[in-house]
Amino acid sequence: MPNSSQDTYDVVVIGAGPVGENVADRVVAGGLTAAIVEHELVGGECSYWACMPTKALLRDAAALRAARALPAAGHAVSGGLDPAKVLARRDRFTSEWNDSGQVEWLNQAGITLVRGHGRITGTRAVTVTHTDGTTTTVQARHAVVIATGSSAHLPPIRGLADVAPWTNREAAAVRTIPNRLAIIGGGVVGSEMATAFSDLGAQVTLVSQTRLLPGVEPFAGEQVTDALRTAGVSLHLNVEATEVGRDDSGAVHLTLSDGTTVEADEVLVATGRTPNTKDLGLDHLGLTPGDWLHVDDNLAVLDDTGTPLQDSWLYAAGDVNRRALLTHHGKYQARALGDAIAARARGDKLDLSPWGRHAVTADERATTQVIFTDPEVAAVGLSAEGATAAGLKIRIVDYDLGAVSGAALHADNYRGQVRMIVDEDRDVLIGFTAVGPDVAELLHAATVAIVGEVPLDRLWHAVPAYPTMSELWLRLLETDGRDR
Fold it and tell me: 187 a known binding residue?
């Protein structure tokens, strides 16, 4: 029989990624004790296999393109990227996949780390199995929070499982750039990795059953599509991979639904995410293991009928609740949830009104996202399609970003576009999308306008500095005025 022990804390968090870390941090800041359970690296997917390493893979090429878009700087640049140096910089951002720095942060924050795989075994009870087979039962006085994130989804394509496909993890941690890379999936991960590996010298083929970047405005996906094709990426859009195999030489062969065949050295699967909920003991609570967790507006877990669990002691934050599969929104949820749990424990009244301190309103009204392709895509709030589907009466205002003086100075032959979506009944901004080089830094102004529900008449008085790309706000308002 393995040895076992028991410890008690105010809050127990399963998952030490950015979401779990933020929940625990806010709980401790609120005067409670917290333990965090993790069986992999402290810091989670974002730190080691997603946000940080993938953006490091993309950044050098983006800087090189920016230099080459200016005549004098472009003349000064000779040669191309050194993939080894790109990978070395990536390694620095992942701390060589060593989590000692993040463990030190937990210690400094007063958060107890329990290493091992956690499973819910009773009311507010999590049993942790350690690598040596011993177990510890960690009991929570107030709440258990599931923040276990998500993993890459592998579609049921014949032969795919047998070829050892890459997911975002293998792509982010790559040691040798393959000569030929096939990518299945045209969403954010597929499009970003097509950009990165093409920049690093691979011959990239991307297969998508939809257009590129179906989650954003079509004009943004079209500009990314054009740029990838110009870079030499072979795109097979609106088709599916029906069979995958690896021959004796090690080459991977993909058969597509239109009869086309693709040959590559490796295949990366980027077809969405699946929740990390299979082995958490959810069956003890009447929940279905492996499913996304449904939550109410307080992030309390609901049963399969949509009813809160008795006493509402179990919560889910981040990817597992499927509200917004983005690290920054998971951290936003975590801050609100951690503060709410601490407030409840103190007997304080919660502010769950729209935009209240303990609410997570932005997940529905102001989801922000930057896609680090060439060109970048930045979006917040509703798309035109999403706003129409929600039954809102809207105005769509488009502007050529390349016609803005700041953009023309930023890069020769700058190409980009912006769109704002206006709620006609309230005359406030509810959606914004920009595509073009370096548009990521434009996003927060739109986010503030949407969250603040700033009337367009007031936005006229937010004077953009000249000559910057932010002049686009003046041009959008002028266009809106002329079009009405």
Answer: yes
